[in-house]
Amino acid sequence: MLRILHTADWHLGQTFFGYDRTKEHLHFLKWLSNEIEKREIDVVLISGDVFDVSNPSSASQRIFYQFISNVLSNNVNLQIVIIAGNHDSASRLEAPQPLLDEERVVIKGLISKMHNDDIDYESLIVNLRNKKGEVEALCLAVPFLRQGDYPTRSNGKSNSYSEGVQAFYVEILEKAKQLKTENQALIAMGHLHTINAVHAEKDHSERIVIGGLERISPDVFTDDLAYTALGHIHKAQRVNKRENIRYAGTPLPMSFSEIDYTHGVVEVVINNGKLQSIDKHTYEPLVQLIRIPPLRVGALSPAELLNELQALPSIHKDSCFDHYPFLEINVLLTEPEPLLKNKIEEIVSHKAVRLASIRSHFKNDKADDDKQLTGELKGLEEKAPIDVAKSYYKKLYNVDIPRDLQELFLEVNLLIETKKEK
Ligand SMILES: [Mn+2]
Asked: Ligand 1 center to residue 112 CA distance, Å?
């Protein structure tokens, strides 16, 4: 019997709107260490994006290696397989491999080629051992693939990213099928975006965090595979409703668009080379995200908002700043409120929260606003600045620009014009 824990997308070193997340990551790793011991885990699979950036700080590297070292000594049979994600530096992640016992920790970042320039698929196939020391599964530890990492077409022409990645999995799966014996299962790892994967598409920040990758058909993960352990998408999910192809999801929410995600790891049990069970174990992050108002409400007027903020719990002298929830505020503006930010900050400075983001919404918020604006920009040269200001104001707040603001604008405009002439 082989007990596997699948996790991914730790993004160690990530800061959240400028706030340090070290305590949150340490909290997760402590929880994970307990899970490994409690559930007598044989293998931990980390499906990429261990670090948030390709040149992680020494502090975040220390956290990572300390964790590896601790779990290895506390669990004498434990094996760890790590693949690089698109956020990791493939070579940097692999660099400590010579110091590590390859039977216990395997890190795959780079794709190596053989003498004849063919891809060395076998170098990515890792033996997974049960408590008796028998190889009960083979793991296809495929890191995030970059251009040049995947096979080209037989006619020498280059294929698209998704074609290339799919071809890679077909080839490595063939290789693994040749290598495996009857009582061994096949497990695939990958750091990629599958077609139909659910993520917070609308949110700009998550798109930055996960990056634009071409989508891969989950059909490459055939029934020959007992389980496919994926990383890259932050929302934990099954792919195409197939139980045994999963994204583990991030341990911590990476943006406010992920406020409703549940977090955790997936436990996969293999028995006699066959899949026996798949269970998700939920992790409750140390720090919560709060959105005022809740998403279904959208945004509040400045007055309503300030009231809500007043109602937040106050700072307690024994509490810890690092544990305070992160706060996102959504305000609906009908006119400019130049002092609002100061008012918000003043109230929040006495509250047991950490202000992360203030988002302004306007009455006329429309998805196609950008397009409209581009249209209007065309005739900009012929328009007087005050007319542009008037129409912009009207669009934003749905009322005419007040007289005093108009006068102020004209005054500033005149000042600029005279400066230009000088
Ligand atoms: Mn990723």
From this structure: 21
